[in-house]
Design goal:
This protein has 224 residues and is of the alpha/beta class. The protein has an 8-stranded parallel sheet with strand order 1-8-7-6-5-4-3-2. β7, α6 and β8 form a beta-alpha-beta unit. α6 crosses α8. Bound molecules: ribulose-5-phosphate and fe (ii) ion. Ribulose-5-phosphate binds next to β2, β3, β8 and α7. Belongs to the ribulose-phosphate 3-epimerase family. This is Ribulose-phosphate 3-epimerase.
Length: 224
């Protein structure tokens, strides 16, 4: 079964001074999801924003809010993000010792549960929680910053994650260094949700967003 392709612009690369307008702009430009990168300066070496900021822009569009939590501990904040309007909440497998509990907590809040893997973390780490996941996120850069280059070895991990998922109803997302140039290879490896921050928001000119989203979507639709 081929899963629908989803393009998820990351607002980490938005102009934060105009965050609401930047969210509306990508929604109008054809984004499927709004990817929200939450960083704590502890799990990753950068701080972005938290649930109150996300809540402030949530009402501006009906798009799916795809929240990528790069925070540890993560469990104490799941309710805040659910209340702030997250549709998908993704936690890192490396963020704590009780991944199964975190995934179950997200589902019990009525949200889709995602699990993210850092570049050095093998796919086998999620083998025993795969039926508790609605989304698997393969990080194709070390998390913490936008604008980094795609790590080519990620393609092997995407293939492995796709094999683990098999026929299950689980999305496979890739995040970090995604561009129109590598989108076909990423989708050919098995991914169906592509996060892109700098490739869409570079220059922060809303007039360019539609073409950039379309370029990634068209490239991904061709498949490598
Ligand atoms: O999770 C992230 C970083 O930790 C971001 O989602 C990711 O880096 C997107 O930005 P870019 O497309 O510029 O790499
Ligand atoms: Fe992300």
């Amino acid at each position: 079964m081929t899963r629908p392709l989803r393009i998820a612009p990351s607002i980490l690369s938005a102009d934060f001074a105009r965050l609401g307008a930047e969210v509306q702009a990508i929604a109008e430009a054809g984004a499927d999801y709004v990817h929200v990168d939450v960083m704590d300066g502890h799990f990753v070496p950068n701080i972005s924003f938290g649930a109150p900021v996300m809540k402030a822009v949530r009402g501006l569009t009906d798009k799916i809010f795809d929240v990528h939590l790069m925070i540890a501990p993560v469990d104490p904040y799941l309710t805040d993000f659910a209340k702030a309007g997250a549709d998908i909440i993704t936690v890192h497998a490396e963020a704590g010792p009780h991944l199964h509990r975190s995934l179950q907590a997200i589902r019990s809040l009525g949200r889709k549960a995602g699990v993210a893997l850092n570049p050095a973390t093998p796919v086998s780490v999620i083998q025993h929680v795969i039926d508790d996941c609605d989304l698997v996120l393969i990080m194709s850069v070390n998390p913490g910053f936008g604008g980094q280059s795609f790590i080519p070895e990620s393609l092997t991990k995407i293939r492995q994650a796709k094999a683990l998922i098999g026929g299950r109803d689980i999305d496979l997302e890739v995040d970090g260094g995604v561009t129109a140039d590598n989108a076909a290879a990423i989708v050919a490896a098995g991914a169906n949700v592509l996060v892109a921050g700098s490739a869409i928001y570079a220059g922060n000119d809303p007039k360019t967003y539609g073409n950039r989203i379309r370029a990634i979507r068209d490239a991904a639709s061709i498949r490598a």
